[in-house]
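sorry for the late reply, my laptop died twice this morning and i had to redo everyting from scratch. anyway the thing you sent over, i finally got around to it. pasting the sequence first so we're on the same page, its 298 residues, then the predicted structure underneath. double check i copied it right bc i was rushing
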Amino acid sequence: MKPDWIAVDWGTSNAQFWAIGADGSVLGERKSDKGMGQLAPSEFEAVLLDIAGDWLSITSRVVTCGMVGSRQGWVEAPYQTTPCAVCPSKMVTAPTTRSGLIVHVIPGIRQTNPADVMRGEETQITGFLAQNPGWDGVICLPGTHTKWVHISANEIISFQTFMTGEMFALLAGQSVLRHSIARSGWDNDAFASAMSLTLSRPESLAARLFSLRATQLVHDTDTITLRASLSGLLIGAELAAAKPYWLGQNVALIGANAVSAPYIAGLATLGIQATRMDSTEMTLAGIKAAHALLEYID
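ok and here's the structure:
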């Protein structure tokens, strides 16, 4: 089979490319470390040709999502504004020099009050809804910047972003806690105990964080235990703040197992059984759904 079009998830650090057949099957998959963060707008086309040049000798149709559409990307794809349809019927076309090459960029979504933005996550949500038609509830997308998104009638009603993942990385790697936090490992009991503290008293977070360092100095607590405790404190505070989203709602998670597992465990203690979907699979499903809305003019 020959590629009918090409799907691309172009992030800040990496890019992933798929050759898609006319029947929607994946004919090939490739990755690149040439993410948006190291490219000028004029350099994206060259990377696309380098990675997928043989596919492009057969098809000239490309649909992309992610940071490729940011202000620093290939072309800025202006945000849709909530409430809005998850999957847009209109996209931005990136400037190209190769004759016949058409590169569509899926726009991100913004919220005006309180101000918030997403770029890339909307495509994962589109993929989830494509596989779960009629689903209403809240989708959590855990990661560096975790998002809680209220979905109703195939629209994003509202969302909120938490910098929990980035805070964990900064605290574990650059703060005074770096001396007490293991690089890997896990302790389920320590996580659950710490999470319960900030879930019930989120205002105690700052004090609880320093107590991790003090606990290690005073009691020589294992650094793996403290790593799980740090995660528990941060996620507990996040769940407390996100309560208006998850309370009484269907909840689904889109993310890798490693980052999703603590959220699933935390929600389970609240009596919420969340479904997890793989982020890469949902991204590809979302790009396919966006592609299906396009009308190409050859």
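DSSP finds nine helices and 15 strands in the chain.
thats about all i looked at so far, will dig more tmrw
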